[in-house]
Fold this protein.
Amino acid sequence: MTGSDSQRRSSRAELSRRRLLQYGGAATALGMASQLIGPPAAWADTYDSMRGRWFQLLTGTGFDPTSAPFSGALASLGSTASRYQSTMAPASSSLWPDLPAGSVSANVTSSYSRLKTMALAYAQPNTGLTGSASLASAVTTGLDWMQAQAYAPTTIPYNNWWDWQIGAPQSLLDTCILTYGKLTPAQIDSYCASIDHFVRQARFPRTPGQAPGPTASTSAACSRFAE
């Protein structure tokens, strides 16, 4: 970890997009989702470039979306995303009826994974849902529901630590990048606060008599960053 990384984390006055970069390791190379089908040719600043790189890692580059096997895969992605959108039914205890929150932590990760799938169908070409306003709205509605009901700074973690420290935040961050242009600074701030709540304690704990070392969550984050 460099000194500049530490300074970015400690500053609460940073722009929301810079706060989005500070979590999960992978978030330091993110994409500019306001530009569908890829980032712009010219970057506004270094952080846009980082987000652009991660956007490309999520969506891929250098392929023809109208040719096999990509066309079939993209069509399948769109079909899956459409199913998730049509079955999403925000209620008091679940975003999807088959993924209730409150006792099974894997349902939190799975809910974010479905939102990520929807976001990918929105951002990638030739899915049948590319740039769909209604799909983007469903994704942001889902993110806000998760923030309020399932993955908030006030939530007490249960079941498997992996979902809280790795699974959920990775899919949440990826979804944020894919729909970045549809999110407000306040939304991004709130999502980052949730990640900070769950991931902060997982970073480099010190055992008496031993040097601090990475936990499983930091190792996973670093491996994603190195991809």
Observations:
- The longest helix spans residues 70-87.
- The chain has nine helices and no strands.
- The chain has a mean pLDDT of 78.
